[in-house]
Amino acid sequence: MKDWEMISSRQNSRVKNLIKLQQKKHRYRQGLFLLEGFNLIETALKAGAKIEELYLSQQLKIDSAEVQSIIARLPAGIEPVILEEDLLKKSATTVNPQGILAVTRINERSLNDIWQLPGPLLLLAEVQDPGNMGTIIRTAAAADLAGLLTVKGSVDIFNPKVVRGSMGGIFSLPLCQSITLQDIKQCLAGDQLKPRRLVAAEPRASQSYYDFTFTTDDIIVIGNEARGFSEEMADLIEQKITIPLPGSMESLNAAVAASLVVFEMLKQFAQN
Amino acid sequence: MKDWEMISSRQNSRVKNLIKLQQKKHRYRQGLFLLEGFNLIETALKAGAKIEELYLSQQLKIDSAEVQSIIARLPAGIEPVILEEDLLKKSATTVNPQGILAVTRINERSLNDIWQLPGPLLLLAEVQDPGNMGTIIRTAAAADLAGLLTVKGSVDIFNPKVVRGSMGGIFSLPLCQSITLQDIKQCLAGDQLKPRRLVAAEPRASQSYYDFTFTTDDIIVIGNEARGFSEEMADLIEQKITIPLPGSMESLNAAVAASLVVFEMLKQFAQN
């Protein structure tokens, strides 16, 4: 293992900081977030993310091609740190972090920046389930949307469960979190900004999502899993569409509804 | 609380059986599964499911309209049982079971029965994430599919996390679990059975899902989240379609992919 640092104490300050990254407050204080397992670290590297720390379990086969290939792509000056298996498991939030953890920098764009990008956006208004948020980011990245915005009160995008669920989509999708409805109003009213309109799926709307004509400047809005949209948010929505449900359920899962609307939009763009 | 039974010991046999329902083996031994919280119990009752046991926390407001309405719909001879809050929490798998648990009977249909029902089916081939399975059942019930089949090796439909994610969809959707590929072959070859074909989304297929013409006898097949289809399963699939992904991701979440295909099919049926 060359002369890499080896940590076996829970009291070590690097380990303390690493474990703190499980909490949102500390992620933002440090400006960093956690990547667990080979797949996510590979995706991050391929997307050009800069790994700032790499932790390997003492029990990991350091000589394997998989590990060596990751080490070879660390930025100059960054060396792996070896952790006792126990400490690595404590630092991870997954049951099976595969003996490898990395830390990379939180990278958000400004609202105005994202607003001006060519192509449609997603706006998540208080989506709170980390699984849903991760899946929606994965869908948005797969659909090559211009970016994703979240309203204050949504789950943190750099929550380890969201990061995992996104399957690395967070690295390719321009993101801006915790904006306010006031911010959105200002963008919608801004002369210097691209004109955009807010479109949302609602159970009681009359127009079906597949009879609606999407534009590349649309912002698809997704509400809270249980409560839908606040009144103030609903007032900002220009177009309401519905996903017809012939069966016995009142609604779909939020990530499913978001994906149906996004992929109907993609299909219209591909066919026109 | 009238003279309902009140349990405060973890050693009580009813409580022991209740806690065992968290494990698949015991669910099938008892033929029962767990419903946690008001929403799920309400949905079960509305769908006509027979509640066999009802547990209320000692801290629950028994006089509330919500609780009384559930008690009023218990089958003759079934009385609520009061549990100490601690015991109720131990018996539940959710963080917040809202002080109410119910037990109802596992209700599966035979493969041949479901095969003959009019309308399309879903076949889940080793879908393993309970969140995905629950979401897919919710989608299938919302789409009013004829039924849902799972191949051996898929997560148990009566797992509490699946039941919750389905939002009660398990009560309206005809279900048959743990069938083998041999069973499917026999149904496909059966003279006495309705002719059906297996259709699956695959990243490398050439035909887009929206250029494909679905029929009401189709069976949409969804593979394992990481491995996709086994070779033997792939051999049974007659039509391969693809969901075009313009962005940086190689695939979509399994529940999202299933929902896109199912709702494209619905749209075609609605438009023809």
Secondary structure elements and pairings:
The structure is a homodimer of 272-residue chains.
Chain A: E1 6-7, H1 13-20, H2 24-30, E2 32-36, H3 38-46, E3 51-57, H4 65-72, E4 81-83, H5 85-91, E5 100-105, H6 111-116, E6 121-125, H7 130-142, E7 147-151, H8 160-165, E8 175-179, H9 181-189, E9 197-201, E10 207-208, E11 218-222, H10 231-236, E12 239-242, H11 254-271
Parallel strand pairs in A: 1-4, 3-4, 6-7, 6-11, 7-8, 9-11, 9-12, 10-12
Antiparallel strand pairs in A: 2-5, 3-5
Helix pairs in contact in A: 7-11
Protein model, in words:
Two copies of one chain form a homodimer. The mean pLDDT of chain A is 95. Chain A starts with 5 loop residues before the first strand and ends with a helix. Chain A has a seven-stranded parallel sheet with strand order 8-7-6-11-9-12-10, sandwiched between helices. The longest helix of chain A is centred in the C-terminal third of the chain and has 18 residues, at 254-271. Chain A has helices at residues 13-20, 24-30, 38-46, 65-72, 85-91, 111-116, 130-142, 160-165, 181-189, 231-236, 254-271, and strands at 6-7, 32-36, 51-57, 81-83, 100-105, 121-125, 147-151, 175-179, 197-201, 207-208, 218-222, 239-242. In chain A, strand 6, helix 7 (130-142) and strand 7 (147-151) form a beta-alpha-beta unit. By secondary structure, chain A is an alpha/beta fold. At the A-B interface, helix 7 and helix 11 of A face helix 7 and helix 12 of B.
